[in-house]
Design brief:
Length: 141
């Protein structure tokens, strides 16, 4: 399948505007290119679990958003087939979270992305692997 040309700047705008869940969490797609995406977020009080630590769902959602955005950079719609995330350490309120997704494998239909979530100092907070099934339907924007 040939990849259609993608306007990455426009795709960032669309993904930031249309993803209500990530908007609610304060996650913003910041960079996008072929096989790569970066999402960022500042940890807030509302992100904490009952133990006073950043909720694991915040990290997973950031990783999922980055991987899905990197997948969308191929210019096609896709659905997630599998996802896994390993938690290493937690961030505190006020820290910036950075999720960076990189393409590992591309095929006609199956694509795999690795994600690293760090804080603003580069400390590794967790990693994930996300597998997508690329649909034949091109993104329209």
């Amino acid at each position: 399948m040939n990849e259609p040309p993608v306007d990455y700047k426009r795709l960032i705008e669309i993904r930031n505007a249309r993803n209500n869940f990530t908007k609610k969490l304060g996650i913003r797609l910041e960079a996008l290119s072929a096989g790569y995406a970066r999402a960022v977020k500042i940890v807030e009080e509302d992100d904490l679990n009952p133990l006073g630590r950043t909720h694991g769902g915040v990290y997973f959602t950031m990783a999922d958003n980055a991987a899905g955005s990197a997948m969308s950079a191929r210019g096609y719609m896709a659905v997630t087939l599998n996802a896994s995330y390993s938690f290493f350490r937690s961030a505190s309120v006020g820290e910036q979270l950075i999720a960076e997704a990189s393409e590992v494998k591309t095929g006609k239909t199956i694509c795999v992305y690795d994600v690293r979530v760090t804080n603003q100092d580069g400390d590794l907070l967790g990693t994930g692997t996300f597998t997508f099934f690329q649909l034949e339907q091109k993104l329209e924007f």
